[in-house]
Amino acid sequence: MSEYTLSEIRPTDKRNRRLQEALLKKEGIELDKNLDYSVGLFDEDYNLAATGSCFKNTLRCMAVDSSHQGEGLLNQVVTHLMDHQSERGNFELFLYTKCDSAKFFNDLGFYEIARVDGKVVFMENRRTGFSGYLDRLRKTRVEGERVAAVVMNANPFTLGHQYLLEKASAENDVVHVFVVSEDVSLVPFSVRYELVKRGSAHLKNLVYHETGSYIISNATFPSYFLKDADLVIQSHARLDINVFKKIAEALGVNYRYVGDEPFSQVTSIYNKIMKEELDAAGIQCVIVPRKEESGSAISASKVRQAIKEGNLEALKSVVPESTYAYFTSPEAEPVIQRIRRAEEVIHY
């Protein structure tokens, strides 16, 4: 039986990073760009036999060299990653895996949330995590003939977001507003959530929710075991929609409102799949044309670009007063500096 050494693989460790990339590629996996911790199991000759990584509270890029399979190495890697996450204070863990690997992770204490057959399974390490989230949502259920939902990142909240909520509010008895709470945006979740509430406070039939880790952002959806860029977008959309269907059932939602997307190929494909899937499930997907300013669609990307360029005056015509007041206050200075330091603020 071989002896193995467990070692961290740092981004600056070029040799081991090359070994990690080669092992993953051999097993049909690309190295994810979103990683903040990686580890490897090395044999006596310091060849890489198994590897795994983390990004925030997710486990990623886990593989065992085919010549070492059957030795329980992936179990060791996953156990170590879970211990590492515990040390970081992350006790609610998530992972995405191929469908044929789901049983392995189930045996390690992970439970299925949703899947796209033949592509990807979304899992967590709490038996009652998602079911508990749904139970909490049910407590906010409001009966009505038309019950709508809107999911937004609002990075930051613009007049376009406000227009979408105003339309949904006017056309429905109640609107459940979900703000994506994964903190991977330039504007932190706590700020985004508050700006959504302030900018829509005049609408009296809205119910606000955090998404937790259950509605997945583009930034954290894993693409490392899907080969084609469009397949990544489609799989992300179908997985996210399968999760949303369960949320909709808990709340009695029968309409979902989304803004159309003239700028983003990703969101355009996402919206097309969403409409097909939700309409088939009896949930009407309403795609609302974007609100325009001076002949151009309002977008959060353009707002971030204006902030990056130091042109806060340009915000006046495209964001609510509450958003403008925030970005011209001392409280916003750390967020403004974060946006100005970012290499890329336009997302496609």
Automatic annotation (TrEMBL):
Record function comment: Acetylation of prosthetic group (2-(5''-phosphoribosyl)-3'-dephosphocoenzyme-A) of the gamma subunit of citrate lyase.
Keyword Nucleotide-binding attributed: yes
Residue span, N-acetyltransferase domain: 1-128
InterPro entries noted in UniProt: Acyl_CoA_acyltransferase, Citrate_lyase_ligase, Citrate_lyase_ligase_C, Cyt_trans-like, GNAT_dom, Rossmann-like_a/b/a_fold
EC number(s) given by UniProt: 6.2.1.22
Source organism per UniProt: Hominifimenecus microfluidus
Gene3D superfamilies xrefs: 3.40.630.30, HUPs
Reaction equation(s) it catalyzes: holo-[citrate lyase ACP] + acetate + ATP = acetyl-[citrate lyase ACP] + AMP + diphosphate
GO molecular function ontology, one term from the record: ATP binding
Protein name: [Citrate [pro-3S]-lyase] ligase
